Hints:
- By secondary structure, the protein is an alpha+beta fold.
- It has helices spanning 5-14, 43-48, 108-122, 191-203, 230-250, 295-306, 308-315, 321-324, 371-387, 409-413, 422-431, 434-437, 444-465, 480-484, 489-504, and strands spanning 19-25, 31-37, 50-53, 66-71, 77-78, 86-89, 91-95, 102-103, 127-139, 141-147, 150-156, 208-213, 220-225, 228-229, 254-256, 272-278, 281-282, 337-339, 346-348, 360-362.
- A hairpin with a 2-residue loop joins strand 16 and strand 17.
Amino acid sequence: xxxxxxxxxxxxxxxxxxxxxxxxxxxxxxxxxxxxxxxxxxxxxxxxxxxxxxxxxxxxxxxxxxxxxxxxxxxxxxxxxxxxxxxxxxxxxxxxxxxxxxxxxxxxxxxxxxxxxxxxxxxxxxxxxxxxxxxxxxxxxxxxxxxxxxxxxxxxxxxxxxxxxxxxxxxxxxxxxxxxxxxxxxxxxxxxxxxxxxxxxxxxxxxxxxxxxxxxxxxxxxxxxxxxxxxxxxxxxxxxxxxxxxxxxxxxxxxxxxxxxxxxxxxxxxxxxxxxxxxxxxxxxxxxxxxxxxxxxxxxxxxxxxxxxxxxxxxxxxxxxxxxxxxxxxxxxxxxxxxxxxxxxxxxxxxxxxxxxxxxxxxxxxxxxxxxxxxxxxxxxxxxxxxxxxxxxxxxxxxxxxxxxxxxxxxxxxxxxxxxxxxxxxxxxxxxxxxxxxxxxxxxxxxxxxxxxxxxxxxxxxxxxxxxxxxxxxxxxxxxxxxxxxxxxxxxxxxxxxxxxxxxx
Length: 505
């Protein structure tokens, strides 16, 4: 929004701004913030920053945790939820050093910037353009408890079909189960709320493509934003989540981007559209290629699919992420690509026909991810695919121009699948992350810390709930992946017996 402090000061005076809000991103991809009176924003603030404790953000040990936040004036915008007029902005984090501070290599925004710089160094492209889609639920009531003797939760919305028999406050306009896609008023009770969200986003510099009701009948919604440069879109992703949650709270409701808040209803994904530009020209377009995609585009897809398991460890970083990645709800479960096929993890939109719009989307990510890490990981996987000319067709990953959910168990077993749990995704990331560390984009220490944190989260949830994920093999055939791991039909059958023994006690 601004390039100089004088511009900011003029805006502050014109809009009677009283406070400056600095937003920093923790390792999990959540905003933290600190506020200062507007008169304390000086050139020194822009040069030396604001000190804070990095250990509370998941970045550093207590004994060496002093860090500095440097605001980025270009990200500044008025906070629509602040009663006291407040200008909010994000920025970068530095390590205190002599003579000059240096960028903290684990800070999410810095990782995204290094990924872009690495791409430019390769000469493959100048810009990574992405467009995330935001699916979420809005509930009228949310309650939960985790006690030594009781664990449970309740969510509710008046539009859900389970309220059709409720004699109180029932107008009879419930949304059918799995029947919410683009449904109109009066069933769509949050249309105006979404419009307010979108107007706030536009005011904060985030372009909106459209909004609508999604498939889930119990209040599932979607806002899709315009495509933009990768780091800016990571900033925008944080803004979108902030607006969605706070606008809902302002209306007396609760919004969640949780991947699977309701069993047997569609889950919330964050599909990521992407394309590359070099000297302003599209890298992914070739009129004669499959779906008008260039070799570079197909190799990029090859990289995404080759590293799909490891990517899931970053783009799907919660135990709930894998409740969404199950058949029957338009969420991907197999590794493959195709045009206009929503059962494939990489979908090529048939409607994107112009050279500069030619792109594809990765459908497994969800909004529990840290967007800076997620987008950087996607880019690094794609660049690895281009560098090594990974042909997804030659690897047996498609194109799958048929419904992957309708395959027989025998046919499914022949196709490599996405991880079925967070633990499995973290195992994949642990064994396959060399592509992330190239050019120093992802520090090895960051990957180690990330895996440790996520394993502890999974273990804590399992301990609290008593839950454990056990895998049951179909055994219609032995997949290529299993054979490479040394498995046989008999060994898989024995694993099933052990899983049944444990699961059924």
